[in-house]
Design a protein that fits this description.
single chain, 124 residues, mainly beta, seven-stranded mixed β-sheet, four-stranded antiparallel β-sheet, 0% helix
Length: 124
């Protein structure tokens, strides 16, 4: 299977930017779908963005559309989430997920592999 690990979380002030990284180990599939989800206290997990690493094609959920960019490196083993104009509502645990099966799913339950999550805290 795939091993997924996030890094780059931390604290930021409202209006600042933060970049998260997600690395995948054990990929023997070539292009795979990778995604960022987040979960705030007392709320359901929601999607932020997905990317198919084979083409770099992104998809953005409504949660942070217009304030985030997802992209991957040339090895297709690391994906980044650049978050801009952060708000206090963006405070959450951010999870990276990966799935090798065909088209990128949109629901979190359709992603097979998950990282442990990284905390992002935005203060106003």
């Amino acid at each position: 299977g795939l091993q997924v690990a996030e890094s780059g979380g931390g604290s930021a002030e409202a209006g600042e930017s933060l970049r998260l990284s997600c690395s995948v180990v054990g990929n023997r599939y070539g292009g795979i779908c990778m995604a960022w989800f987040r979960q705030a206290p007392g709320k359901e997990r929601e999607g932020v963005a997905t990317i198919y690493t084979g083409t770099g094609s992104p998809y953005y959920y409504d949660s942070m559309k217009g304030r985030v960019t997802i992209f991957r490196d040339n090895t297709m083993s690391t994906v980044y989430l650049e978050m801009m104009q952060l708000k206090s509502d963006d405070t959450a645990i951010y999870y990276c997920a990966a799935d090798p099966r065909g088209n990128c799913p949109t629901l979190p339950e359709n992603f097979r592999y998950w990282g442990q999550g990284t905390q992002v805290t935005v203060s106003s």
